[in-house]
Amino acid sequence: MNTIVVTDIFGKTPALEELCSKLKGEVQIIDPYKGAFLKFTDEVEAYKHFTDVKGMNSYSILLKEAMLNQNQAFKMIGFSIGASAIWMNSQNKNVKNLKSAKCFYGSQIRNMTNINPLFPITIIMPTKEEHFSVDELFQKLKEKRYVKIEKTIYLHGFMNKLSKNFNQDAYAIFLNS
Question: pTM for this structure?
Answer without folding.
Answer: 0.95
